[in-house]
Specification:
The protein is an alpha/beta fold. Helices cover 44% and strands 17% of the residues.
Length: 339
């Protein structure tokens, strides 16, 4: 073999090694993410569709989840790295018992103008139930009631505003679709619904909007981003994931404010969420997604105090020890505060 050929092969081999070494070093980190196919998952879907995760060297595997218990189990076992979830008694109890979950960012709140949950009243009772006191002796349906849910605390705020005790109202637990059905059949007088069921119930003449959640309990932390050990052990990946996620949330806010075409947002949501009718997005109240990822920690502490008082939790946990803002802080340090 001539010297020229030998040098050529050496250079080619070195280039190949360098290329494959670079590829391995920069291979996308896989993150398994639990989604409910809800509108509050918008930040995740936008980040995926717009390529924000790819920009951060992350490959996301989206997995459908359906309940808080599913989320807790999947995060603890490592089947999921990230998921949305409600900061409810069940999550707090699981963390207190040693499940390694961190609450890291906002993923759905009832900020003013974002009452995407609402207390509904049967249409025929609209002139009879006008204030909380009118619920005495009536039947109210709420998802997750008696299970330490965020809906329970919203019910408490409603009743408290009228000086009504919970034992003065018949409160029953049922899933959101069943609440809508029961309003239609007349088996309940009032109930909490979530969009798009709020809008659909009105359009079908089943019920009327009585009070939206942002009026009853403004800025309640209804959902949050949760990191399991599959993510907390990879802090750099956690920061990069959060960077993409908050870019997605900022896109969402920009679209709602008219800074960018709203149609692109709706196209992404109709493709990925369970709300497939584009026209509904112009009628619904949409979730509040904080563009800086900020959590209502004071509200979470107040909710926990209620869970303890009502026996949904036996012992408290220190919210400040289970909320980890370091990921969001790092992102804000790079992207700046959203304005």
């Amino acid at each position: 073999m001539t010297l020229a050929k030998s040098n050529y092969l050496h250079i080619a081999l070195s280039a190949a090694v360098a290329f494959f070494g670079w590829s391995a070093a920069h291979a996308a980190d896989t993150v398994r993410v639990g989604v409910f196919q809800s509108i509050s998952d918008a930040g995740i879907y936008i980040a995926d569709e717009k390529g924000y995760f790819a920009e951060q060297g992350i490959h996301v595997e989206l997995q459908r989840v359906s309940s808080a218990s599913t989320v807790t189990t999947a995060l603890a076992s490592g089947d999921l790295d990230v998921s949305g979830g409600s900061p409810s008694a069940s999550i707090y109890n699981a963390i207190r018992q040693g499940v390694p979950i961190e609450i890291v960012a906002d993923k759905g709140s009832t900020h003013p103008g974002h009452g995407y949950l609402a207390f509904m009243v049967r249409k025929e009772l609209a002139d009879k139930i006008k204030k909380p006191e009118d619920l005495r002796g009536r039947t109210l349906a709420a998802t997750g009631y008696a299970a330490g849910s965020t809906n329970e605390v919203a019910v408490h705020h409603l009743l408290m505003s009228g000086g009504v005790k919970s034992n003065e109202v018949k409160i029953v637990a049922m899933a959101f679709p069943d609440v809508m059905t029961s309003l239609g059949t007349g088996s309940v007088d009032a109930g909490i619904l979530i969009e798009p069921l709020v809008t659909l119930a009105v359009e079908k003449g089943i019920a009327v909007v009585w009070k939206r959640a942002d009026e009853v309990y403004p800025s309640q932390q209804y959902a949050a981003v949760l990191y399991g050990p599959g993510m907390t052990k990879r802090h750099d990946v956690g920061v990069r994931f959060m960077t993409a996620y908050l870019k997605g949330v900022r896109f969402y806010n920009d679209a709602l404010k008219g800074k960018i075409p709203r149609k692109e947002l709706i196209d992404i949501l109709t493709k990925n969420t369970s709300v497939k009718t584009a026209a509904l997005y112009d009628k619904m109240a949409l979730p509040g997604l904080d563009p800086n990822g900020a959590l209502n920690i004071k509200g979470m502490e107040d909710d926990m105090a209620w869970f303890l008082k009502e026996g949904r939790m036996k012992e408290p946990v220190d919210i400040k020890k289970i909320v980890n803002t370091s990921y969001v802080d790092a992102v804000i340090g790079k992207l700046g505060v959203y304005k």
